[in-house]
């Protein structure tokens, strides 16, 4: 697979393909990977997420991309840009987010990929990117800091009202 939209020394970023479903379903089904989300996702829910990302890429020219480890061509998860429209005083907005399989944690891959996505956003004319994570998600918050984002505020995520353990989120932003 050489159809990368952009790459880093270790990562290739591309749109989603049908062959990604099994690997991404396994990542989304992992309880530890999904501990700061509402719940692990089924195969059908993963397909729906992929479909939303393909639609977003067509509409906006960005999405949470499929990310391959270049050395092995394995799908390691997703890193990319989203379009958030939930009820909040800062939406609609472009956000940056990530979800990698446990096998690829603590190797600097998320930071490397997120920096590349910020460069991609700048090339697309985006001038501000936000990121949010549950306040207990210190690993994601650390990545936000490493990529130069600044803390803005904490807020109660309107779509997580039924999930009080993860509803309180920290919001970070960066101007490009």
TrEMBL record:
**Pfam families per UniProt:** Acetyltransf_3 (PF13302)
Q: Where is the N-acetyltransferase domain?
A: 11-170
Protein name as annotated: GNAT family N-acetyltransferase
Q: List the taxonomic lineage.
A: Bacteria, Pseudomonadati, Bacteroidota, Cytophagia, Cytophagales
């Amino acid at each position: 697979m050489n159809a990368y939209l952009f790459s880093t020394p270790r990562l290739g970023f591309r749109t989603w393909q049908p062959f990604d479903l099994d690997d991404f379903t396994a990542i989304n089904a992992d309880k530890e990977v999904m501990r700061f989300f509402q719940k692990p996702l089924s195969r059908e829910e993963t397909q729906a997420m992929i479909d939303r990302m393909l639609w977003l890429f067509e509409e906006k020219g960005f999405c949470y991309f499929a990310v391959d480890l270049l050395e092995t061509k394995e799908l390691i998860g997703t890193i990319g840009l989203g379009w958030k429209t939930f009820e909040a005083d800062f939406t609609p907005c472009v956000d940056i987010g990530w979800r990698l399989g446990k096998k690829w944690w603590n190797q600097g891959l998320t930071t490397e990929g997120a920096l590349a996505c910020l460069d991609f956003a700048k090339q697309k004319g985006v001038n501000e990117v936000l990121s949010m994570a549950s306040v207990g998600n210190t690993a994601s918050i650390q990545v936000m800091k490493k990529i130069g984002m600044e803390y803005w505020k904490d807020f109660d995520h309107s779509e997580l009202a039924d999930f009080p353990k993860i509803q309180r989120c920290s919001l970070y932003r960066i101007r490009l």
